[in-house]
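Record type: monomer structure entry
Structure origin: computed from sequence
Chain ID: A
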Amino acid sequence: MITTRRKFIARSILATGLGATGVNIRSFAGSQSVISGKTSLPAGSKNNPEAFRISIFSKHLQWLDYDGMAKALEEIGFDGVDLTVRPGGHVLPERVEEDLPKAAASVAKRGKKIYMLTTAIDNADDPLTTKILKTASSLGIKHYRMGWGHYGNSGSVEENIKSMQLKLSKLALLNEKYSISGEYQNHSGASAEGVYFGGAIWDIGMVLKEINSPWLGSQYDIYHATIEGANTWPIGLKLISPFIRSIDIKDFKWIEKDGKIRSEAVPLGEGMVDFRKYFRFLKDNNLEIPVSLHYEYPLGGAENGASGLTTDSNKVVSAMKKDLSFLKDLLKESGLI
């Protein structure tokens, strides 16, 4: 009776919105994982083998080919890689069927793993989306970060939220088809397209709660959350915590430049992010998720995904080792590893 009532309510709510966007209402409302209140991820339960496995965001190794990248993972000490599969990335979306297996093979030779992908996916109807998810799933990859949304200049906040919910609802169904978790990263500030949707946390948190799919979640970024909510980030974290499937790690400080205050990325432990408080929350709430470590401070171009370095590669590797060691020490201190 309860499940039937939920299905009825879901059909009623979604009929006007999803029907207009071409979603099959019957298949959506009948999807148990979306509307039954099931919240557990296939890879996210107790004793998750991916829990706190640390990957490097491969944007910072795009000066290396697949074999070179795999060797760097081993040398620096990472468990695996968060691989860029997007325009300008390690794998180009149009070549995903050919090149993603090659990257996976190179990493596997060094005993490492692709734990997640970073993509520009934002449309379930794009044929490239299906190719990426199908290929990733066939290789056992369980997580991908999707592309960002933005608040447009027209339309109310509520209209923007509804639009994002409809878009992500369709992606949730495609994710379920290929048994892969799509994860939205909260990003601070704005781009040329507008203010980032999800930067405030509550908006993406609302959307994820409404969709309620185990195949759709948050790639929570404490760096961006701290920038947007210096004092209130713990509230946003508490709100979105049931939906966190992976996390990003980096640090920043406030600086004054040209008469303006802005954020500047720095090595871990030199900035504003309260990692101890953050990791204590993860521990207290039994969050067991994989980690992507980012290097956004100056590293001879590696910070920007450059194809070549302007500094000695040994200096870059040394800096990467230092941040990784700092992160592992904090995770151990917090009882997370």
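Annotation 1: The CA atoms of residues 12 and 29 lie 9 Å apart.
Annotation 2: The chain is about 40% helix and 20% strand.
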